[in-house]
Amino acid sequence: MKQIITLILILLVAGLSAQVVLDPRYHTYEEILQEINDLQTNYPDIVMVQQIGTTLGAVPYQDPIPIYAVKLSNNVTVDEDEPAVMYAGQVHAEEVLGIEITMYMINDIVENRLVDPYNVWLDNLEMWFVPTYNPEGLQVVMDGWDITYRKNKRDNNENGVFDYEVVPGGDIDGVDTNRNYGFNWIHGDEFGVGGPQEWNDYYRGPGPFSEGGTQAIRNLAEEQHFIYSINWHSSRTGDFSEKSRLSPISSRICSNA
Ligand SMILES: [Zn+2]
Predict the structure, then answer these.
(1) How far is the CA of 153 from the centre of ligand 1 (A)?
(2) Cα 207 to ligand 1 centre (Å)
(3) Which residue segments constitute the domains of the chain, with CATH numbers given?
(4) Rounded to two decimals, what is the model's pTM?
């Protein structure tokens, strides 16, 4: 009996120590909000923070989380007749590098707002930044529950509990928000498996635009008619040497406009 208890204790400690937390230099959701709200307060002429939607909430264990965009432009509160562009930092939970890139860009442009080319951009463009549109997944990663987590937290099996595995993939809950756009949704999430599977890391969701994250991006795109947009991705495998990759999302959104 003693041996069994000892074994249980060892496994428990091993399990706890397996929880890995990311370096605190990476932004949590709260830190993103604090930083963009401070920028809006300090530079109200060129910085505007706007809520563009919410997650739908992984009912009943998660309240909806607001999704925010930051607009940078001269006369920022006016919707001027200028080309609009969008930069989205993070859709996949563990791909946190895009958040750092978008937050760096926002700060860099504001800091150097009087310097070429940023002064020209601010004069002639409406630049929209969405640091994260998967704040549910970001929480899973930043709180150290599972730093390999990819999806949002939709309660697929509706059991009221967030079901996930602390390894890449195999998470019963969650939708791959990036597979949830309407364009090509029909072709599904069969990457590596034989058909739509909720536990799959590429699960497309129960319907096109069923998720709060994709709805927020779609609604903003329909409102702003972006001429160009990019979404950063990075790799948990390290195959890309921690570099971020770009993927255009305009086409996926526009085809559903
Ligand atoms: Zn990705």
Answers:
(1) 16
(2) 20
(3) 21-254 (3.40.630.10)
(4) 0.87
